[in-house]
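Long-time lurker. I teach an intro course on protein structure, and each term I like to show students one example going from raw sequence to a predicted 3D structure in token notation. This year I'd like something fresh instead of my usual example. Would anyone be willing to generate the tokens for the chain below so I can use it in lecture? Attribution to the forum is fine with me.
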Amino acid sequence: MMVFLPNEKAPIAAPIGGLIMSLVGFWGFVKCVRLIAGKKTHGGLITPSGLRLLGWFFLLLPIGGLFTGYFVTHTERALIQTAAYFGIFVGLRALASRRESNDA
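-- Reply from a regular --
Happy to contribute to a lecture. Here you go:
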């Protein structure tokens, strides 16, 4: 509940951040209950569209690094991370298309 209390430094960002953290936590809780309960799932924990959205998030991380100056301060590390993020992006998209083709 402390996340939702008014904050002098960030009166708008604190409640919005708290809401987002609560939603992510609730989503994770639901997924954990599904795993523990052993509910049979046909397509996995995340839908193909969710996998694609998550893949785009990983692709946008290096783009954010360009604007924050991360590539200037940590060039080698940033290039390795960019390659890894691109690999995750491609892998998630392939997994999503494989799941969609299995559903059809």
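Some talking points for your students: The mean pLDDT is 85. The chain has two domains: 1-40, 44-104.
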